[in-house]
Amino acid sequence: MDQDQEQRQNQTEYKSVPTQYTSNSGQNSYHHEVESTQGQGYGIASLCLGIVGLLLSCCLPVIGFILPVLAIVFGVIGIKYPSGKGMAIAGLVLGCIGVIPALFMVFALIAY
Fold first, then answer.
1. CA dihedral in degrees (36, 47, 95, 80; nearest 10)?
2. Is the pLDDT of residue 23 over 70?
3. What is the pLDDT of residues 72-86, one digit of tens each?
């Protein structure tokens, strides 16, 4: 008797519960909403380039200028997609901050 109860309990733990029930022309159908990951790569790329560009902007001005500019470009593209919007905004901010010391270092090297 205990084994039967354990089996029923295990079976009820793993049942799939649909998120939404709709009726289409008398037919029963289940719809599971799935979050789209389209465009998330732009946000990730923007964030990574922004971090690395910010770190390299004082040491290597040429690379430290190119990477934040790419972070800004990918950030602007990534803001359009809701899945990576937070990372895109963070990369955009880091890219804007990273461009400033890189420009300062480039102008300092030219003036020197």
1. 0
2. no
3. 999 999 999 888 899
What is the Cα–Cα distance from 104 to 106, expressed in whole angstroms? Answer: 6
CB 88 within 8 A of CB 48: no
- Measured CA to CA, the distance from residue 56 to residue 64 in angstroms comes to 5
Helix locations, the chain, DSSP H: 2-13, 40-56, 61-78, 85-111
In angstroms, the Cα distances linking 103 to 36, 41, 52, 66, 84 are 37, 27, 16, 10, 28
Rounded CA separation 105/28 (Å)? 66
Place of tokens 């359009």: 80
Task: Give SS3 for 46.
Answer: helix
Instruction: Give the tokens for residue 6.
Output: 């354990």
SS3 state at 82: helix
The pTM of this model reads: 0.65
Whether 91 contacts 74, CB under 8 Å: yes
